[in-house]
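Sequence of Carbon-nitrogen family hydrolase (Streptomyces sp. 900105755).
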Amino acid sequence: MRASLIQIDVNEGESVESRRQRVTALVREQAEADLVVLPELWTTGAFAYEEFAAEAEPLEGPTYEAMAKAASDAGVWLHAGSIPERAPADSGSAAEDGPLYNTSLVFSPSGELAAAYRKIHRFGFDKGEAVLMGAGQELVTVRLPGTTLGLATCYDLRFPELFRGLVDAGAETLVVPAGWPERRRAHWTLLAQARAVENQAFVLACGTAGTHAGVPQAGHSIVVDPWGEVLAEAGTGEEILTVDLDPARVATTREQFPALKDRLLGLAPPRHR
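Predicted 3D structure, token representation.
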């Protein structure tokens, strides 16, 4: 399986529509790939909080339409990164009053929506995404020929229990679009490798380049194999990272080092002495 991660430079001087057209063209150029992955919130920038509401789209909005067409034109599975989704409002409310979500979209090679994942762990503590967007409630996997994708987004990478849940649901390739800041880049690489090792799965972590609302981005998109080996890593600028993966490597690793079989679940809580 050939995977291409497109590390997009989110330039604050570029309009959302211009970037959407540019990224659509980049996806169409990846016709030799089986799977293409885009970063988190690449239309607005992950830290451009003031843009979320203004640029929010319904699920089947302009980014959906552009990415569905690009996936079909290239004949690839496309993880289209995530968008600020404006969900339908409650009955009796104006459309613009519907909740916001950080929502990832996955398209099949025919351009059909295969899955949508609303980010569960929102970053910001008591500000930014954490208060502007709702939290997803469901783990999402997508079956591809030869592998099953488990979907996560950026800050999710810090929560290993989410990935355990994805593995229990059959995930063999963990896909993590992100808008990760440069000042915590060491954590990005460390956590990507840790999630690969502990789950004996491929990790495809696709970040952004450039600066989001004054926050320099880490770049360094990375592909890690089930043994924790880094197969490819991008630099800090816009770049397309392409790597050939052997999906059978997951089963081989799990058979040769069957650590997942030794998990002990349902332990009683500690007693206070």
